[in-house]
Amino acid sequence: MDQNVITNIQENFMSLSKAQKIIAEYIINHYDKAAFMTAAAIGNQLNVSESTVVRFANVLGYTGYKELQRDLQELIRNKLTTVQRISLSDELSKSSEFIDKVMGKDMENMKKTMLEINEPNFNLAVNSIIEAENIFIIGLRSSTFLAGYLNFYLNFIFDNVKLIQPSANDIFEQLAKIKPSDVLICITYPRYSKRTLDALDYVNTKGSKIITFTDSSLSPAYSRSDISLIAKSEMLSFVDSLVAPMSLINTFILAIAAKRREDITPYFEELESIWEKYGTYNESSNTKNN
User: Fold this and answer.
1) How many angstroms separate the CA atoms of 124 and 129, rounded?
2) Per-residue pLDDT for 32 more than 90?
């Protein structure tokens, strides 16, 4: 559900039963705890039945409690401190299936991203980049390496790409010359960088188009952007799962390259000659014997 789950509870509060109102008040006041409690645990906490908790979720428009719980987790992800994130993995670290659970979460994020990707938005974003006079890229904190990866490959395709550097001069100085004919690509995942959001607010005053890679329509960057491409990054601990975002960015690069194939082929042929002449890559076929 796109609507904030807390707002949804507040708007439906008067129509709830007495027991459901008890659940509603608990979630509103303790949503950071409730997000990681099962329906049975909430029932035990409030002396109501598990089925009452499930019916409460149904009244709010959810198919079940787990769906409500996912929305609560989505709501608070950007508010969790590193210490709180680490605590989420306490039980996981005791599991004998550690690798399966962590990598399984990455696979789950990939599947959700593939199922929920908005293809018309994706194609619109690709065309917007191709038509842009200049392309600016920003990604701070944990999104820095994603921004760098995108910048590395887009520079093979275009001559007008600029990566906003967090360690260089102020990001607003780097964005000062952005025009309405330019496009800013923003990459931001929880915990969302305030500096990134400030940059989006500034670019909106300049009339430039903003394309954002983020994790949800609840992301604060979503409402600040013209086009948002969603890739799931649900985490099990203090490390975000950025497998799906990387895959979506990779798909984005390849889609742009496919449309620009005739323009970039001669350039890559020249690059191959340079790489071969100066030994950029190790072409040795020798392998270590076991």
Assistant:
1) 9
2) no
Q: Which of 62, 55, 112, 64 is nearest to 241 (CA)?
A: 112
> For the CA atoms of 264, 270, 276, 278, what is the dihedral angle to 10 degrees?
-120
Q: Select from 71, 108, 119 the least CA-distant residue to 217.
A: 71
DSSP state letter for 133: S
Decide if pLDDT at 18 tops 80: yes
DSSP state of 240: -
pTM above 0.85, yes or no: no
Give the tokens for residue 54. 């499930």
Could you give the 3-state DSSP secondary structure of residue 187? strand
Find the distance separating the first CA and the last CA of the chain, reported in whole Å. Answer: 55
User: Tokens 């690069």 correspond to what residue?
Assistant: 253
Contact 164, 199 (CB under 8 A): yes
Confidence band for 2, pLDDT divided at 50, 70 and 90:
very low
Nearest CA-CA partner of 150 in 199, 186, 112, 193: 186
> From residue 246, how far is each of 21, 183, 250 by CA, in Å?
42, 20, 6
**What is the spatial distance between Cα 203 and Cα 224, in angstroms, rounded to a whole number?**
10
The phi-psi region of residue 61 (left if phi > 0; otherwise alpha if psi is between -120 and 50; otherwise beta) is: left
Full set of structural domains in the chain with CATH: 5-79 (1.10.10.10), 114-276 (3.40.50.10490)
* 3-class SS of residue 118: coil
The better pLDDT of the pair 167, 163 is held by 163
Q: Which of 206, 27, 58, 60 is CA-nearest to residue 134? A: 206
